[in-house]
Design a protein that fits this description.
The protein is of the alpha+beta class and about 140 residues long. It has two domains: about 5-80, no CATH class; about 80-144, no CATH class. Helix content is about 30%, strand content about 30%. The chain is built from five helices and nine strands; from the N terminus they run E-E-E-H-H-E-E-H-E-E-E-H-H-E. It has helices at about 40, 45-50, 75-80, 110-125, 130-140, and strands at about 5-15, 15-20, 25-30, 55-60, 65, 80-85, 95-100, 105, 140-144. A hairpin with a 2-residue loop joins strand 1 and strand 2 (about 15-20). Helix 4 (about 110-125) packs antiparallel against helix 5 (about 130-140). The two termini are about 25 Å apart. The model has no long low-confidence stretch (mean pLDDT about 90). Bound molecules: iron/sulfur cluster. The site of iron/sulfur cluster has 11 residues, from loops.
Length: about 140
Amino acid sequence: MYMGDFIVIEEKIGPDEYRGCSVSTGTPFIARIDDDKRDLFSDDSWIKTHPSACRFLRPSGEKIVCTIHETSPVQCKAYRCVIIRVCSQDGMARGFVTGTLALHSDDPALKKDWKSLERQITAFPEDAENLIAGVLMEKGYVCT
Ligand code: SF4
């Protein structure tokens, strides 16, 4: 909600693509609006009334979501963002994993499965995102 000074859009470079910059480090990035969030992003009524918010943020029901989850800057992935959403096969949300590699879930079964993953995550932190998604998908979860 207060990242508008740090994550900026410099230029629109395609129908759904933007050249952006993480101002604090001067790191450029190319942002592509997620396929399933284009309608959300195209409605700019909310963002116009929230000048401190990151320009890629939008309300979705009762949540506020990043519309460039797939291509968000590395700083967001590392520190702020949800990097994996975990659902059951019927599409029910079971939890999510943040960029700090923490699981947030009320589901006892998922929490138990997560416990068995923690040692592997600690051993291979650089590949944690693929590792987590791979293991959870093997266990029957849907990871996005
Ligand atoms: S996670 Fe997305 S909405 Fe949040 S600051 Fe980063 S780019 Fe902006």
